[in-house]
Write a structure and sequence with these properties.
The complex is a heterodimer of chains A (334) and B (340). Chain A has 334 residues and is of the alpha/beta class. Helix content of chain A is 30%, strand content 22%. Chain A has helices spanning 56-63, 90-93, 113-124, 130-143, 160-173, 190-207, 218-224, 242-247, 252-260, 268-271, 302-306; strands spanning 7-19, 26-40, 45-49, 71-76, 79-80, 96-99, 178-182, 210-215, 227-232, 235-241, 312-313, 319-320. Chain A has an eight-stranded mixed β-sheet, sandwiched between helices. In chain A, strand 4 (71-76) and strand 5 form a beta hairpin. Chain A starts with 6 loop residues before the first strand and ends in a 14-residue tail after the last strand. With 340 residues, chain B is α/β, with parallel strands linked by helices. Chain B folds into two domains: 4-223, Rossmann fold (3-Layer(aba) Sandwich); 253-339, no CATH class. Chain B is 34% helix and 21% strand. Chain B has an eight-stranded mixed β-sheet, with helices on both faces. Chain B has a four-stranded antiparallel β-sheet with strand order 2-1-4-5, with helices on one face. Classes of the chains: A alpha/beta (334), B alpha/beta (340). At the A-B interface, helix 6, helix 7, helix 8 and helix 9 of A face helix 8, helix 9, helix 10 and helix 11 of B. Chain A: This is ATP-binding cassette domain-containing protein. Chain A: Keywords: ATP-binding, Nucleotide-binding. Chain A: It comes from Taklimakanibacter albus.
Chain lengths: 334, 340
């Protein structure tokens, strides 16, 4: 990593007010993203992993500026875009695109595929001639593995995998530099999922895209990511190069997550450390004091309930937010 | 497996209304006491319809027409009347569903919903029902069951709702539990808790378990035997190790190879299966339904292959025309490439 990172997230915070209290008053605040910092280099894929309510989708929406962060700083290509007003976000939309989780909800059912992709093309170049526009739509469809005949279809005529391909073609149409993919394959069957993951990787190489890939599936994350960030209750608790992370996670939550994924190998349990976390994820309305993970952490000590660890550098340049990061030889999460 | 707890023979489910749409085609399977059979397959392959047909939920649904035999505790469930069937449902065979929020009634307290099962299947006093309900909630790991029994479903988290569903299923100590994607709606760490709980309760209650899932990781973790379904047919069935180590059907091998598992080496490309599965309500290809997506297809494949053993083990069956040599060498290599 050299030069300016393409994306810089510094101490970013987003809280949501929860209404519905007495006389419509405020009942509290969801600490969706709380003091999160990281950089993403151009051409890199950063995988963000975490369970529901950890703030990963909110973080994605902050980065593409669908929502405005409360505090902190968000830079894209050296420019501060944290509080840029909605009016002047249009040029940014050409550079940053989001791929959504649900291919059934993210395409307008009343439009034809050519209209859906065409609208994105117009954002790139509104003066494009009609013939060129059609040719470009066909080229984009072909690039994501769909025949040109799909142009005249409507979303309901397409399968989940085909819709997700349209979603990807739409994102590519504007010629973006950064793609934020929020659970792009979790609604798909395994055999289709593999195809979409391969496609995303090919396109990334071809167009030199930078990708922030969000998923709850550590297997998918491993397949696509150069670096992995783990989120828990709004905080980034670990950030490490993918190979090092999977070989030896440093945060107890990362270890538990790795241990919880079912491995497609009937004998995996023989070599694997079994960790079953107690209880549920606490509510992001009132995250625990001290380390947010201490209520479920198998290694928690008195200090963990009192003071919250900050994300700090460990040996080897890895970042972890834990008072007692795991020693390398101990963890066998793999 | 000494004696089968449930023995299903030639179960076939068609869409009613004259269309030639077969959702479940000639499926036979047996589950023994304390045994776990997993049914895997992609969306629309007929796994849920199979499960719902076993417990009789599709019986009076005018959209389906059923045939076949389901032998359970000395009776053929397909021949039972509605009242007799209802005695088996919940007491002998219980089922838990994918989405715990939509399978619990949001207007009734958790305790009342579990208690209802006990009321329906026996005469108990209300204090006895409450005592048993608290005990069930404790068994499934709900903290403070004495107070949580009076909560409404919305006061429970997703994991706790699924625990409550399991408590309800266990209320009458069924001998067979059918779980349809019980952890799909849950987070990974919660999924781990629920799977651990199901494994423990299976031993405590000595139940047989039929678990439906699309996740081969869960299968590897919990199954004794596996049935792979494709386009409404069983394409492979066998012991979990045999099936994972030496898959005999190209679809099974392809599925296993396409998982981006966390323990596999980060490769350039994931092997994928081209094309998409047929939509069963619109009919399927002649012969082997996997033919249009198969890399090994022969001319013979236009005829439907029989379900038979082709390897060393007699209880490892597959529905494929390939020779045992091809299966053992090519398919195995495909699968080992993934594990490398």
């Amino acid at each position: 990593m050299s030069g300016t990172p393409l994306v810089r997230v510094a101490a970013l915070r987003k809280y949501f007010a929860v209404k519905g209290g007495w006389l419509g008053g405020r009942r509290g605040q969801v600490h969706a993203v709380d003091d999160v910092s990281f950089d993403v280099a151009a051409g890199e894929t950063l995988g963000l992993v975490g369970e529901s309510g950890c703030g990963k989708s909110t973080l994605a929406r902050c980065i593409v500026r669908l929502v405005e962060p409360d505090q902190g700083k968000l830079e894209f290509d050296g420019e501060d875009i944290t509080h840029r007003p909605t009016r002047s976000l249009r040029p940014l939309r050409r550079q940053i695109q989001l791929i959504f989780q649900d291919p059934f909800a993210s395409l307008n059912p009343r439009k034809r595929i050519s209209q859906i992709i065409g609208a994105a093309l117009d954002l790139r170049d509104a003066s494009i001639s009609r013939g060129d526009r059609q040719a470009e739509i066909a080229r984009l469809l072909e690039r994501v593995g769909l025949a040109p005949q799909f142009m005249d279809r409507r979303p309901r005529e397409l399968s989940g995998g085909q819709r997700q391909r349209v979603g990807i073609a739409r994102a590519l149409a504007v010629g973006p530099r950064l793609i934020v993919a929020d659970e792009p394959v979790s609604a798909l069957d395994v055999s289709v999922q593999a195809d979409i993951l391969n496609l995303l990787k090919d396109l990334q190489a071809e167009f030199g895209l930078t990708v922030i890939f969000i998923s709850h599936d550590l297997g998918v994350i491993r397949h696509v990511s150069d670096r992995v960030g783990v989120m828990y209750l709004g905080r980034l608790v670990e950030l490490a190069p993918a190979d090092q992370f999977y070989a030896a996670p440093l945060h107890p939550y990362s270890e538990a997550l790795l241990s919880a994924i079912p491995m497609p190998d009937p004998d995996a349990h023989l070599t694997r450390k079994e960790i079953v976390l107690e209880g549920d994820i606490p509510s992001p309305l009132a995250p625990p004091k001290g380390c947010r993970f201490h209520t479920r952490c198998p290694y928690a000590q008195a200090v963990c309930a009192g003071s919250e660890p900050t994300l700090s550098t460990q040996a080897g340049g890895r970042l972890v937010a834990c008072h007692f990061p795991l020693a390398k030889q101990e963890s066998t999460g793999r | 497996m000494s004696e089968a707890l449930i023995d299903i023979r030639n179960l076939t489910v068609r869409l009613a209304g004259g269309r030639d749409a077969v959702l479940v085609d000639d499926v036979s399977l047996a589950v023994g006491k304390g045994e776990v059979l997993c049914i895997v397959g992609e969306s629309g392959c007929g796994k849920t319809v199979t499960a719902r047909s076993i417990i009789g939920l599709t019986r009076h649904d005018p959209r389906f027409s059923l045939s076949g035999e389901i032998h359970f505790e000395g009776r053929d469930l397909m021949r039972l009347g509605a009242d007799e069937l209802r005695q088996v449902q919940g007491a002998g065979i219980a089922m838990i569903f994918q989405d715990p929020m939509t399978s619990l009634n949001p207007l009734h307290r958790i305790g009342r919903q579990i208690g209802e099962v006990l009321t329906l299947h026996g005469k108990h006093s209300s204090t006895e029902i409450r005592r048993r309900t608290v005990e069930l909630l404790r068994q499934v790991g709900i903290p403070n069951p004495e107070t949580r029994i009076d909560d409404y479903p919305h006061q429970f988290s997703g994991g706790m709702r699924q625990r409550a569903m399991i408590a309800m299923a266990l209320a009458c100590s069924p001998s067979l539990l059918i779980a349809d994607e019980p952890t799909t709606a849950l987070d990974v760490t919660t999924q781990k808790q629920i799977l651990t709980l199901i494994k423990k309760l299976k031993v405590d209650y000595g139940m047989g378990l039929i678990l439906i899932t699309h996740d081969l990781g869960i299968v590897a973790e919990i199954a004794d035997r596996v049935m792979v379904m494709y386009a409404g047919r069983c394409v492979e069935i066998g012991a979990v190790r045999a099936l994972f180590r030496t898959p005999q059907h190209p679809y099974t091998a392809g599925l296993l190879a396409s998982i981006p598992a966390a323990n596999r080496v980060r490769g350039e490309r994931l092997p994928s299966i081209r094309g998409v599965p047929p939509i069963l309500s619109e009919g399927r290809p002649q012969g082997c339904a996997f033919l249009p997506r198969c890399d090994f297809a022969l001319g013979q494949c236009r005829n439907l292959p029989p379900l038979k053993a082709s390897g060393a083990e007699t209880d490892h069956l597959d529905r494929c025309w390939l020779t045992p040599e091809v299966k053992n060498q090519t398919l195995r290599r495909l699968q080992e490439g993934a594990q490398a």
